[in-house]
């Protein structure tokens, strides 16, 4: 009875708000075409999307406030716009609650003329627990209902950089991959559980990143279901101690059972990084082992910081391996954080970051 009411209410909301906001009504039609290659981007709100390279973009996961203008524009470029899906797993162990959640999302997507959903559950789950099975069912049932109700819609699921219970996310990756259209692999925050020396390191070291794709592929997940996610942000770590060799020891901040993590640092957008590197004490440095750029700077209190990030040089070999492994595509977290101002240097850097997704 409760879920019946929820469905009814969702239907009513959907009916009320489904007047096409676009200039041309056909722009409200959902995208049905399957692209061989995905450039899957996350947008977190605001109007920077006006400066994206729309000749590349195939899917926008809209994580900001709903923007009808973005939906109309994306559709005019043949790109999908998908909802964000997140829910405490304890709520959707119950089948009725799960169905109600899915129904609600489908109705919301329809009323906003959207093309699917990106499920971003980053919660810890124990293998074999009720939440473990509920999550798998959630993905399967969401995909079924979206495909049925919005023909051609896309259901994707965000996974950690490796399937090996990273951050205690022990999901049924194989069944989840089978049950949706694609997995977005978040190949970043790879220092969320530092087991060795508690020191600053790269957000997404090359070898570790690529090995983890082999782990996914070794599970017999099809490469055509895998989209590589690269970071357009880095980590700024205050150093407790800065050694002669340039090693930056960081504060011990535990995360999901491990004593040291990247939570000792602050995430910084590429836009900030490119300004900060010029006023740094080291300038841009390159770590051969991790194949990543970094720099050191001194803050106003005289404390040394070490900053690790990705730039075209570190992203290129990753993008190359998307091609060589035959993956479905590439994307980033997130599209907003480049410098889209008119400054000629910024323009050049921004163009190079977009282009690095496809070729070097
Ligand atoms: C956008 O991407 C396309 C495809 O890679 C490229 O040819 C074009 O030069 C890019 N546009 C800009 C403005 O950088
Ligand atoms: C159903 O979901 C609601 C939140 O939407 C939650 O408060 C409630 O505990 C859930 N019920 C069950 C039985 O899990
Ligand atoms: C800093 O490192 C040096 C050796 O590199 C060590 O002797 C010293 O105890 C360290 N200081 C702190 C505060 O960790
Ligand atoms: C940073 O320095 C480089 C090299 O000196 C220069 O080309 C560039 O314009 C500077 N970038 C910014 C954002 O000031």
UniProtKB/TrEMBL annotation:
Protein name (database record): Di-N-acetylchitobiase
Localization per record: Lysosome
Record function comment: Involved in the degradation of asparagine-linked glycoproteins. Hydrolyze of N-acetyl-beta-D-glucosamine (1-4)N-acetylglucosamine chitobiose core from the reducing end of the bond, it requires prior cleavage by glycosylasparaginase.
Gene Ontology molecular function, alphabetical: chitin binding; chitinase activity
InterPro entries, alphabetized: Chitinase_II/V-like_cat (IPR011583), Chitinase_insertion_sf (IPR029070), DIAC_cat (IPR047898), GH (IPR017853), GH18_Domain-Containing (IPR051887), Glyco_hydro18_cat (IPR001223), Glyco_hydro_18_chit_AS (IPR001579)
PROSITE patterns hit by this protein: GH18_1, GH18_2
Residues that span the membrane, as ranges: none
Record has Transferase as a keyword: no
The keyword Cytoplasm is assigned to this record: no
Keywords: Glycoprotein, Glycosidase, Hydrolase, Lysosome, Signal
GO cellular component: extracellular space; lysosome
One Pfam family from the record: Glyco_hydro_18
